[in-house]
Amino acid sequence: MSSLTGTLDKSLPVPVGTQLFGLIQFGIALGELVAGFRLPSVRDLASHLGIAPMTVSTVYADLRKIGLIEARPGSGTFVASLVKEDRGRASAMRKVQKKVDALFAEAESMGLAPADIAALVSARVARGRAVQERPLSLVMVGNFIETTTVYAERVTAYLGLSDTITVTTFSALQEGAQFPQPADICLTHANRRGEVEAFAPQGVPVVGLSYIPSEETRARLASLDPEAHVCVVSVFAEFMALMKPGVLRFAPHVAEIDVRMIDDPALEQVLNWADVVIYASGLETTLLPRLPEGRDVFEYRHVPDPHSIRTTLLPVLERLRAGLPHQEEAL
């Protein structure tokens, strides 16, 4: 948490509350703040950042509204689960355990040994494996159709040969576009899962994935000339505070970095000053035509975190292939 809040920059033309909201959102999206992580109290965080407690309280309230954090009475405030169906898992397991105990007791009363029940369970598991390759239809929701398509291609490497994945955007859904069908499961950014749940058909689980900088982005940043003047262009105000630290994470040797919003009136002047321009995904058509000739330019691109795919998405896919009910339905 301190690594994220340490990037709060009061000199930026973005309210500190907006920055803090974006920092926590982005921290969840990138897997920096994992499900179950305990956030500082309003008073402690306000004191640490040197801002008004009301600002922190408002940010926390806004994050709770979209389902990214949750308050646990007597315990504090925590990052919420990124997979809606994970909630209640422990309770469901306890209920199943009781049924298993009752099954073994009934089997013993009928003269069956535990090994006999184990053999039946093994046979049932084997039948489940036989249907694991049932093709699934996935929907991925992102900010821009081009980048979301690239993200979907990354996820495809982890899917079955017969699985399909369709892409759409937040704006398309907000403007009334029909949710793609068929849909067995929906994927989106971890920090926007709550928004997508409002559009997904009932019963379709929504999984929030974390993202990391792509291999190409990391390599390009590491190879920057230490003497280069670097301009970083952002599209979302709430993520502006993270852009410079994101560059410095892989290019700590670069001293001259200026971060600007795409609609900043002074952007043209900064672009003329810069030797290297790094832009956020989605700015290709609005920024590139404005660049002076001779500028080294590249996208700060993210990709789905493989660890997030393996630990968050794949277990849900296995349950769907096996025909098992969602956790919430099993309660």
Defining traits:
single chain; 331 residues; alpha/beta; four-stranded parallel sheet
Number of helices: 15
What series of H and E elements makes up the topology? HHEHHEEHHEHEHEHEEHEHEHEHEEHH
Alpha-beta content class: alpha/beta
State the helicity in percent bands. 40-55%
Mean of residue pLDDT values: 84
Q: Poorly predicted ranges (pLDDT <50, ≥5 residues)?
A: 128-132
Shape: globular
Strand content: 15-25%
Keywords: DNA-binding, Transcription, Transcription regulation
Organism: Lacibacterium aquatile
InterPro entries: Tscrpt_reg_HTH_GntR, WH-like_DNA-bd_sf, WH_DNA-bd_sf
Domain HTH gntR-type: 14-82
Layout of helices and strands, plus pairs?
Elements: H1 2-5, H2 16-29, E1 38-39, H3 42-49, H4 53-65, E2 69-72, E3 76-79, H5 89-109, H6 114-130, E4 137-142, H7 145-156, E5 164-169, H8 170-174, E6 185-189, H9 193-197, E7 206-209, E8 211-213, H10 215-222, E9 229-234, H11 240-250, E10 256-261, H12 267-273, E11 276-280, H13 284-287, E12 296-300, E13 302-304, H14 306-321, H15 327-330
Parallel strand pairs: 4-5, 4-6, 6-7, 9-10, 9-11, 11-12
Antiparallel strand pairs: 1-3, 2-3, 8-13
